[in-house]
Write a structure and sequence with these properties.
heterodimer; A: 208 residues; Rossmann fold; 9 strands; 24% strand; B: 531 residues; alpha+beta; Alpha-Beta Plaits; MutS, DNA mismatch repair protein, domain I; Dna Ligase, domain 1; five-stranded mixed sheet; 18 helices; 25% strand; elongated
Chain lengths: 208, 531
């Protein structure tokens, strides 16, 4: 029996979720995308944002640094020159001069006002293979819609991020990674890893 | 012996206009052969349908009503034989030919006739140029071999034009477009078209042509005639400077172009055609999925049409006809002109039809294309690792999103060099920016705003509120500021504000401002979030 578990581990190390021993097998996890926040990288399996699959950011507050969490990765994607960054139904207009100052190529950005078709628009953007990152603001009530999104994110190599209210953390989700972004002490941002495939729940304080 | 004789003749015709040092030498002119199509009876040919609609065979003349004088402009051969000439008044013509039927000249149909001829010409060469009102020029040098020589080409062209328009044409081929036109206007001696391959022969062969075919102003032709100059050969023998002084440098330049000493650039004719096809539905359809299937052959036809022409469209219109209800019109717009891509068109149709509520069953559908657009070859990056890097799918994505969400729901962003925060960005058409050349290789400096608008070290929020919201400053802790922004007096939207970076009790960072001027709204306003 033990041998078969070993076999399974060898055959499919990425898909098998192991609560423990992740440090010992860190190399077996697919390499993540560096988040640009070293403290967060340490707590994520693969040392960064997962390359595939949906990331959920649960956040009720505005202006606490919830976008800054993603910006280093977005800037890196923009520097690599691959694909577009698509914003689906953002709560406010992403401010182009600030993004440009972060080193993001504003000319390769798409803003989509999805209305009640936000999940569909995200799904289309993910499936188009044209985007290096798809950021969406929605709270899908239908678990089916969420699963579809996760499936699309799993099949594309875009960075797929869905922003949802904190309340949504109470219901299960197929997302690969779920983070709760909360205001930290002083100027910091507190990031609580709610769910992480191949990783462990943790809390990180990011300086700002 | 004929070539020899010609060679001997040529020096006699050598015009004194070619004074050494004054006439432009033409060593590096492109080797071209221009075929001129002249429609001698274009006014009558344009009205062919009206003539055929007349009962029996009546003598016909075309009159120009616009000039009030009711002047005969053209007439058929029988009327001509009776002595009616262009320029005669209609009453005089009626006196000569009592049963004469007068038709009004139709300039629009004349133009259509000329374009129809040009259309046929496009089958033989891509370089086609119109010479209004009655001439078309084709550059055929590259096409001669394909069509089996000049004689073969002329025969086929004549046949195709006759089949398509019923017009009679005169043809001439020479290395200079103007010379071709003049030869064609002169009319062929016998039924064979004039064919001159060498530029050197031009001056000599133009000699016998009468000055009428140049269509110079009547006064000038008259003046030349009083000097005893009635043919081009005599005209070419005149001294250059004197000719230019008396008749203008333009005419001299025309002679130079006709004899092939000067190049003549021609404006290319671009077909302004559109696709339109209709299909009756039997039985009538109310189901959009079946409608989509019914549209498939029309889309295939459209794609075939586009492929043949190597061109694309940016908009397609669909007219769905019902029994009672007004026509349902659907307009599909593409971000970039698309060529023969049935899948892409079908995907767009699917998206639009799926959300369409039909008022009634559809009896017939019509597919109309917008104007045809020259397609640009896609520049796919050679070393792109995957399809994402070329950004090739972005237009399709935008179209799909727009088909469902509407045109305004999808846009790109652009930085504007402006001090006012709300004016420092704008929404733009997304793909127009992708076609801009990417100046910096890695895109690091791209999109950086003007240094003055958001200089290094000046913090700007990531979220900007569309409209600043009033806020309570008593809850705020100020971190940075003030940054004074005072600008925009020129467009009536001027602002004078002190901006601060502040923090509220819940750990959020805000961008707030206070108006500096007493006349503006007082209090504090939230303008952005440092998210």
């Amino acid at each position: 029996m033990a041998a078969s578990v070993e076999q399974l581990l060898q055959q499919n190390p990425a898909r098998l979720w192991r609560a423990r021993g992740q440090d010992a097998h860190a190399s077996s996890m697919p390499q993540g995308r560096p988040t640009g926040h070293p403290a967060l990288d340490c707590c994520l399996p693969g040392g960064g944002w997962p390359r595939q699959g949906l990331i959920e950011v649960l956040c009720d507050h505005r202006g606490i640094g919830e976008l800054t969490l993603l910006l280093p990765a977005l800037a890196a994607l923009s520097r690599e020159g691959g694909g577009w960054i698509t914003w689906v139904s953002p709560p406010h207009m992403p401010y182009a001069p600030a993004l440009a100052a972060w080193g993001i190529d504003v000319s390769r950005m798409l803003v989509v006002h999805g209305g009640n078709a936000t999940e569909w628009a995200m799904d289309q953007a993910l499936r188009s293979e044209a985007c290096s990152a798809v950021l969406g603001w929605a709270n899908p009530r239908d678990p089916q819609a969420l699963r579809r999104l996760q499936l699309a994110a799993e099949q594309s190599c875009s960075l797929a991020v869905l922003f949802r209210p904190l309340q949504a953390g109470l219901t299960p989700s197929p997302a690969v990674l779920r983070l709760a972004a909360l205001p930290g002490q002083g100027a910091g941002l507190q990031v609580r890893i709610v769910k992480s495939r191949g990783g462990r729940p943790a809390t990180v304080i990011l300086g700002n | 012996m004929a070539p020899l004789a010609r060679r001997r003749v040529a020096p006699a015709f050598r015009p004194s206009l070619s004074v050494p040092g004054r006439a432009p030498a033409a060593p590096s002119l492109p080797r071209e052969l221009w075929l001129a199509i002249h429609l001698p009876a274009f006014m009558l040919d344009a009205l062919r349908e009206s003539v055929q609609a007349l009962p029996g065979t009546r003598p016909v003349a075309v009159v120009d009503l616009e000039r009030n004088g009711k002047v005969v402009r053209a007439c058929d051969a029988a009327v001509h034989a009776a002595g009616v000439r262009a320029g005669m008044s209609i009453n005089a013509a009626l006196a000569l030919v009592p049963g004469l039927h007068a038709l009004a000249r139709d300039v629009r149909r004349e133009r259509q006739l000329l374009e129809a001829v040009a259309q046929r010409g496009l089958r033989f060469t891509p370089r086609v140029s119109l010479e209004l009102p009655d001439g078309v020029l084709l550059e055929v040098r590259g096409s001669l071999r394909l069509f089996g020589g000049a004689r073969q080409l002329c025969a086929r062209l004549q046949q195709e034009i006759a089949e398509a328009t019923g017009a009679t044409v005169h043809l001439a081929i020479t290395p200079a477009p103007l010379a071709s036109l003049w030869f064609a206007r002169q009319g062929p001696p016998g039924s064979r078209a004039i064919l001159i391959r060498n530029r050197e022969e031009l001056a000599g062969r133009l000699g016998p042509l009468s000055l009428e075919c140049t269509r110079w102003p009547a006064g000038i032709v008259q003046a030349l005639a009083t000097m005893g100059v009635r043919t081009l050969g005599e005209c070419l023998r005149l001294p250059r400077d004197g000719f230019a002084r008396r008749f203008g440098a333009d005419l001299l330049a025309m002679l130079d172009r006709a004899t092939g000493r000067q190049r003549e650039p021609r404006a290319a004719y671009a077909a302004s055609e559109r696709f339109s096809a209709r299909r009756d539905l039997e039985p009538e359809l109310l189901d959009t999925a079946r409608l989509e299937a019914a549209l498939e052959p029309l889309v295939a036809e459209l794609c075939c049409f586009l492929r043949e022409r190597g061109r694309g469209v940016q908009a397609i219109e669909l007219h769905l006809r019902h029994r009672e209800a007004p026509v349902t019109r659907l307009r599909l717009r593409f971000v970039q002109p698309i060529g023969a891509q049935p899948k892409r068109i079908a995907a767009m149709l699917h998206e639009r039809l799926a959300r369409l509520a039909l008022p009634e069953a559809v009896r017939s559908v019509r597919v109309l294309s917008g104007p045809l657009i020259e397609l640009q070859a896609d520049a796919v990056e050679l070393f792109a690792h995957d399809r994402r890097e070329s950004g090739g799918n972005v237009p399709q994505l935008i179209e799909r999103l727009r088909a469902r969400l509407g045109n305004e729901a999808v846009h790109g962003l652009e930085c504007v060099p402006e001090h006012r925060p709300e004016a420092a960005w704008r929404a733009v058409e997304p793909v127009s920016s992708s076609s801009r050349p990417r100046l910096s290789k890695k895109g690091e400096d791209k999109g950086r705003p003007f240094p003055a608008s958001a200089g290094e070290g000046v913090r700007r929020p990531l979220w900007l509120l569309d409209v600043p919201e009033p806020c309570d400053e008593r809850r705020l802790e100020f971190d940075e500021g003030p940054e004074c922004i005072e600008s925009g007096w020129w467009d009536g939207q001027d602002v004078a504000r002190d901006y601060y970076v502040a923090r509220n009790g819940r750990g959020a960072r805000l961008w707030v401002f206070r108006n500096r001027r007493a006349g503006d709204a007082q209090g504090w306003f939230l303008h952005g979030w440092f998210a």
